[in-house]
Amino acid sequence: MEFRRVILIILDGVGVGEMPDAGKYGDCGSATFQNTYRANGGLKIKNMLSLGMGRITGIERDYPVEGAFGKSAIASEGKDSTTGHWEIAGVITREPFPTFPDGFPDELISEFERLTCRKVIGNKPASGTEIIKELGEKHLKTGALIVYTSADSVFQIAAHEDVVPVEKLYEYCRIAREICRDDYRVGRVIARPFKGKVGEFYRTERRRDFSVPAPDGIVLDSLIKAGRMVLGVGKVDYIFGGRGFTECVHTKDNNDGMKQILNSMKRLSEGGMIFSNLVDFDMRWGHRNNYEAFGRGLEDFDRFIPTLKDNTVDGDIVIITADHGNDPTTISTDHTREYVPIMIWHRQIEGSVEIGLRHTMADIGQTVADVLGVEKTPDGNSFKEMLI
């Protein structure tokens, strides 16, 4: 059969079990989906099970499947969103972005202070919600910017919206993006605006990521070069440095993201692709170790699946995957080095199709290129023939 449109959905942080090298990253025992399922005493996820999630994870393994399913290793070095998305788009990152477990070098911070005319406080690895509790009051009094990092290659800047207007915060992030290139090679600069009074601070939805430019060869570039429509939903255009999208709609939360996926499906032309990210699993629940909300989010997505299917047409192919893990049941609040699920459905598929263990998520990007008939990606092997 001929596929005409691709709907790709990334469940941000929904990993399915530790990879063999998880110990190198301090992630032994991580299994985001399985551990969340068990911690909640089970979940109502019959639609995900029908797409193969039970077979992938070993949970309710005998549930009948109608679709193609498997899982993939992450071939890139690291466990961050940038390298994960790039790999899904067909390019493996072989040299990891550096991390800063002791904070950023003094000379980098000094240059940032000079260019922004603001002092910096923090400059250490921290949970985003915890550091605004710790330093938010000092920030309000002094106007100093809260700079922090994590286990990923990120330069994060937190500021209260009443102290630093959001557009000004974005300007500071662009400055940081410029000076965090070259020797430092920081993967992402992230704006983290927050509001509220002392003791009641909360982060707002106006987060913005400023990534290093995406590498050449991503499938998005091939689609744009071929004159195809590429619609982004969520933070994806930030991750690719604004490249490879006809347009992108940013979302408030997962529920808004699911609505925008449906809206985009109504507009997507033949030969095009929707590249979407549902970020709450990672940003709101994984990083905050909130397994109850994570579980409810999985159930919400499960209820969305029948509507998603109903809105497809002949020639559409739906691919659901993740970019890394973020196990909310562990002590860590960072990403986890895990396999990711691959679940695929289209109207003509019959029964269950096992695509097995893929050695790189780049197989997804290569398959998209194959399905839509555009230039191949540098990495990955297509599994299109298994889906027909």
Notable traits:
388 residues, alpha/beta, Alkaline Phosphatase, subunit A, Alpha-Beta Plaits, 8-stranded mixed sheet, 6-stranded mixed sheet, 13 helices, globular
Which percent range describes the beta-strand content?
15-25%
Query: How many strands appear in the DSSP assignment?
Result: 14
Fraction of helical residues? 25-40%
Helix-strand makeup class: alpha/beta
Pfam families: Metalloenzyme (PF01676)
GO molecular function, one term: magnesium ion binding
Function: Isomerase that catalyzes the conversion of deoxy-ribose 1-phosphate (dRib-1-P) and ribose 1-phosphate (Rib-1-P) to deoxy-ribose 5-phosphate (dRib-5-P) and ribose 5-phosphate (Rib-5-P), respectively.
Catalytic activity: alpha-D-ribose 1-phosphate = D-ribose 5-phosphate; 2-deoxy-alpha-D-ribose 1-phosphate = 2-deoxy-D-ribose 5-phosphate
What topology does this entry show?
Elements: E1 5-11, H1 32-39, H2 46-50, H3 53-57, E2 67-72, H4 81-88, H5 106-116, E3 120-125, H6 128-142, E4 145-149, E5 154-160, H7 166-179, E6 188-195, E7 202-203, E8 208-211, H8 219-225, E9 230-233, H9 236-239, E10 247-249, H10 254-267, E11 273-278, H11 280-286, H12 291-310, E12 316-321, E13 340-345, E14 352-358, H13 362-372
Parallel strand pairs: 1-11, 1-12, 2-14, 3-4, 5-6, 9-10, 9-11
Antiparallel strand pairs: 2-13, 4-5, 6-7, 6-8, 12-13
Helix pairs in contact: 5-7, 10-12, 11-12
